[in-house]
Amino acid sequence: MSSSGKNPEFSVVAPIFNEIGCLEAFYQQVRQVMESLKTPWELILVDDGSTDGSSEMIQNLAKKDPLIQAVIFARNFGHQIAVTAGLDYSRGKAVIVIDADLQDPPEVIVDLIEKWEEGCEVVYAVRRKREGESWFKLLTASIFYRTIYRITDVKIPLDTGDFRLLDRKVVDVMGKMRERHRFLRGMASWVGFRQTGVEYDRKERFAGKTKYPFSKMLKLALNAITSFSYFPLQVATYLGFISAAVSILAIPVVISLRLSHQAALLGQATTLITVLFLGGVQLITLGILGEYIGRIYDEAKGRPLYVVSQAPVRKQ
Ligand code: UDP
Ligand code: MG
Predict the structure, then answer these.
(1) What Cα–Cα distance (Å) separates residue 231 from each residue in 149, 150, 154, 234?
(2) CB 95 within 8 A of CB 175
(3) Pocket of ligand 1 (CB under 6 A)
């Protein structure tokens, strides 16, 4: 199907950052699954500033196969932004977002599409099992999903990643949400419509190492929390009330100790600890404020979300 022709039924979007070892296998497996559906489709490969030759490989694949649309970023903008670009360039009536490292098995796409055909607009893939992940990743991921679930206003389903199918209606709404610090899973939940999950076993990486070191995971977690919750800001208020209450209660205690001539609260050490403790709390709450203010500042600058050095000649 040529890019100038009618829109495809399905778009498969994959973000790619240094995945040279996975690309060919990923392409073959996705193609096999999608061809079995006998419906027009396209594969959008978004290169997120790779430095290992993945960009050239994507361009070569796109030259050979007209079903592939290559979007090449000018630098690394991060996974969530790469997926956003893929959504922006997609044309399908349903868009499937999938990782390029084959941790999300392409066969599951068939199950996602089945639910979409039954009338669901968002079909997310729920991880039943995760193979070959370190205990640290499993622990942090588990804490992450549960914290987000507790403190955010939008109920983001537990143990789901970005592997999901989005109906065109949802993609169009998400396309209008241009926030910089993105947490796509939350945004997809926020949109509404009929949403459902399909279980799957998450595989081991096909090749290479994870591109999500702890620092990036932490950033994603902070984006998730700040985008969908004011809870951290409210914590400052609670702490303020608690410390005010403690100090008010302490006044009669200190007075009565003094009157009864028990010099129990002697000391610099107590004062020092109290001052340090409150100083720490104040700095932490300032930091929390800073997280929100920094994000407001980023939004105020209104820069484009990403810069492409090469993209399919259509939209934008
Ligand atoms: N990725 C990306 N930009 C980044 C980091 C990751 O496009 O800055 C891509 C990566 O190539 C892969 C997907 O996002 O296709 C998921 O990354 P990864 O598999 O490293 O994350 P994990 O599965 O370990 O959480
Ligand atoms: Mg992965």
Answers:
(1) 12, 10, 13, 5
(2) no
(3) 15-17, 19, 48, 76, 78-79, 82, 99-101, 103, 210-212
pTM listed for this prediction: 0.88
Q: What residues does 12 pair with on adjacent strands? A: 43, 96
The predicted-structure confidence for 139-159, as pLDDT tens digits, reads as follows 888 888 888 888 887 888 888
Contacts of 50 (CB under 8 A, 6+ apart): 16, 17, 18, 19, 20
Q: Is 294 helix (H, G, I), strand (E, B) or coil?
A: helix
User: Residue 43: how many CB atoms within 10 A of its CB?
Assistant: 25
From the CA of 99, give the closest atom in ligand 1.
15
Q: Chunk the chain into consecutive blocks of 10 residues (it has 316) and report each block's average pLDDT, rounded to whole numbers.
A: 68 96 96 95 96 95 94 96 97 96 94 96 89 80 84 83 96 96 93 94 87 87 90 89 89 84 70 87 92 96 95 70
Cβ-count burial 163-198 (b if 16+ within 10 Å, e if not): bbbbbbebbebbeeeeebbbbbbbbbbbbeeebbbb
Output the CA torsion 57→98→189→227 (10° steps): -40
Best mutation site among 27, 43, 50, 99 for ligand 1 pocket (most ligand atoms within 8 Å of CB): 99
Model confidence pLDDT, tens digit, residues 173-199: 999 999 999 999 999 999 999 999 999
| Strand 68-73 versus strand 10-16 pairing type | unpaired
| pLDDT tens string 93-124 | 999 999 999 999 999 999 999 999 999 999 99
User: Which atom of ligand 1 approaches the CA of 210 most closely?
Assistant: 20
Instruction: Tell me the C-alpha distance between 49 and 74, whole Å.
Output: 6
Residue 136 to residues 150, 213, 230, 316, Cα–Cα distance (Å): 21, 11, 28, 41
